[in-house]
Sequence to fold (137 residues):
Amino acid sequence: MFNISVIYDYESQGMLPAWMLIKPNDGCFDWKSEAFYIPIEAPFQKISREELNDYSLGLSVTQADLVMSVKHPNYFGIFVPRLKQRINQMRGEKYTPFFHLADIEHLVVQMTDIEIVMEMNVLSKYAWRPSFLDPDF
Fold:
């Protein structure tokens, strides 16, 4: 359903996951859905910022756009009607060029927002910490 990758950032503790990049496998999001449910399962494909296409249209997902799934505890959801509402607001702004929903190629979610919504520490669950920080490694 989705191609999920993670962009890492360099912190004082080492490389830590910063952003999750979500792309639809078939090239287009199903904007008629109520929500997109994304599994939190390691390993994720690691990519660098330089690997992103500067000309592809992406949309940031805010913490307020995220929902939980009672049926699927290892998934988080992105509430599509809220995304579409925000897109419509952006379209009305003076300096925002017009675009279609089909033009959006990827979604970007901050890993810390996922942690907050899921009420867990994603870093500890999936051992993304560098080995030099983990004494049991």
User: Anything to note?
Assistant: The first strand starts at residue 2 and ends at 11. Confidence is low (pLDDT under 50) at residues 127-137. The CA atoms of residues 8 and 18 lie 5 Å apart. The chain has one domain: 2-132.
